Amino acid sequence: MLGVLDTPQTAGTSGVAPQLTTAMPGGVLDVGGWVLFDRLPADRVEVYVGDLPVRPARRALPHPGVMGRFANTPAAVAAGFHAGVVVPRSAAGQVLDVRVRAFSELGDTWHSPAVRVSVTEHPPFDEHPLVTGGRLRAARPRTDDDERLRVCVFTHSLQLGGGELYLDELLRRLLKNHDLDVTVVSPETGPLAAGLVDMGVEVHVTRPYAVHPAHYEGAVSELQALLNDIQPDVVLANTLGVFPAVDAALRQGREVAWAIHESFEIEDFIYLNWGSRGLHDEVEERMRAALAGAHTIFEAGPTLDLYRGQIPDLKGRHIHYGIDVGVIEHYQRTHDRAELRRAAGIDEDETIVLCMGVFQERKAQLALVLAFSAVASLFPKARLVLVGEHPTAYAAVVREAVRLLDLEDRIEIVPIQPDVYSWYAKADVLVNASDVESLPRSILEAKAFGLPTLATDVFGLPEIISDGVNGWLCRGHSGNALVAGLHRALSTPPDVIEAMRGNCRAEAASFDGAGYADAYHRLLTLLARTQGLLIATPGAA
Fold it and tell me: What is the mean pLDDT of residues 332-338?
């Protein structure tokens, strides 16, 4: 067995680190490397940092240099592992031992050399103090006599990602059933923008939400000016990264409903988005104050619990996400599954295993390719279809792995596309191999199409997948578990699959978007009345 532990650090290059001592401020400790057991990646990897809880590492990742060393080992393309371990700043002055333990498919173990990490004080932003004195603006109340509920929505993007589609579905439902005046503010346009405009939504594309201490307060005052121009009765925010807009609204005394999808510890989220220095201390405090001040909404109970543990004064609630089940039912009535499969060149006895999601490390498409390669010879009529490719280094490695494993005739890679219903209609089983997931839209859509789902048991997934009833659950962060899960799904008898399909369709009705849209409308109306800005809302619940 061979293994390498890279020097744990928060930024910069990495290298082999036997018995090395390094230093880092409190924050997120980046631990990564690669390991191969008899030319196979590790089944699972665990990271130990001092007395902190054991952290499972993300496995089956590309790692620089490994392929050059093992050119004749196709699976080496996925030999890497990585974990971000949150180290509290209170640990300053301590020296922590960092070790990695990796397990092979057969249970053999590899223990990394120890790395000693000296935790230092978090470096101050002396060169970039928080610039104060911005022209912060008080809220301007509405002066018109339009009695419609006016909502200003802040989101991060209008692309075709999960968080964006969540908002798009919500606004479609709200505008269909209620007479609202909606403005969407986003720093990035995308395919969803045109549909929003068609619904009568005003779309305002702005600059990225500034977090640098030299610009933060000025950007907040500019967002407040925009809010005063829109004059909303209530603000709706979508995703954690829009916190500067939430801060701007709250500091005007406006009420904010904030949908948060990210199942990350806050320090981890900050590191992933803004690097090793993270956020200026005072900007981070604004973020935490925004989380405490807004009415936060989570689509998965475990994600709500995660944030409650980090924000003591959190005003959080759990509202299940929903989809338009009626649209999917109409699609199935008007499209013949057998004809769709014939047109796509799918044999009648072929089993289509579908993975639906934007290609990224946390979605684990590379791990799924490796797991499928382990069972492909046992199920010659199975084909894996990965929908969600886009031009990134990770997506390129996934495609390269398919080539190296000589599975190009068994694994199909499909780019991101707006029309995904045909793939659900043609598929037999959905797979979600993610190691971080709240409540993915793909599983809800699969239910409505009658597709049983194989999913990892992370965060909100056990809330919607009942093992053996509407799908199968497998352990997260484990190659063996994913292989075993694929084997279970592909060897399930047809009559059991048919019963699962019926269970999925029956359960889909409980995830119809009308329920969560109505819950949002009640909340938005209540907040607007509490704020005292709303004159009247005809028909409000």
Answer: 96
Pairing outcome for strands 202-205 and 180-186 = parallel
| CB 196 within 8 Å of CB 158 | yes
Token pair in block for residue 391: 């031009």
Do 317 and 181 share a structural domain? yes
Q: Look at strands 234-238 and 202-205 and give their pairing.
A: unpaired
Domain count, the chain: 3
CB 291 within 8 A of CB 265: no
Exposure string of 393-413, with b = 16+ CB inside 10 Å and e = fewer, is ebbebbbebbebbebeebbbb
Three-state secondary structure call for residue 213: coil
Asked whether residue 30 falls in the same domain as residue 162, the answer is no
The single-letter DSSP state of residue 371 is H
List the CATH number of the domain containing 417: 3.40.50.2000
Question: Rounded to an integer, what distance in angstroms lies between the CA atom of residue 483 and that of residue 95?
Answer: 39
Q: For 435-492, give the DSSP string.
A: SS-SS-HHHHHHHHTT--EEEE--TTHHHH--BTTTEEEE-TT-HHHHHHHHHHHHHS
Residue 161 in this model has a pLDDT that exceeds 90? no
Helix, strand or coil for residue 317?
strand
Cα–Cα dist 350/116, whole Å: 53
Question: Residue 81's beta-bridge partner residues?
Answer: 33
Residue 18: its pLDDT value, please?
35
What's this model's pTM, rounded to 2 decimal places? Answer: 0.83
Mean per-residue pLDDT, 459-476:
92
Print burial letters for 253-284: b (CB count within 10 Å at least 16), e (below 16). ebbbbbbbbbbbbbbbbbbeebeebbbbeebb
Q: Which residues contact 442 (CB under 8 A, 6 or more apart)?
A: 162, 356, 357, 430, 432
Three-state SS letters, 115-128: EEEEEECCCCCCCC
DSSP state of 8: P
Could you give phi then psi for residue 73, rounded to 5 degrees? -120, 95
> For residues 307 and 460, which has the higher predicted lDDT (pLDDT)?
307
Q: How far is the C-alpha of 320 from the C-alpha of 300, rounded, in Å?
A: 7
Alpha-carbon span 29 to 328, nearest angstrom: 44
Round to whole Å and give the CA distance between 509 and 448: 8
Q: Is the pLDDT reported for residue 534 higher than 70?
A: no
**Single-letter code of the amino acid located at 489:** A
pLDDT of residue 111: 92
Q: How confident is the model at residue 5 (pLDDT cuts 50, 70, 90)?
A: low
Residue span of the structural domain in which 49 resides: 2-120
* Alpha carbon distance 188, 199 (integer Å): 19
* Cβ neighbours, 10 Å, residue 367: 27
Same domain, 183 and 293: yes
- The whole-number average pLDDT for the span 482-487 is 98
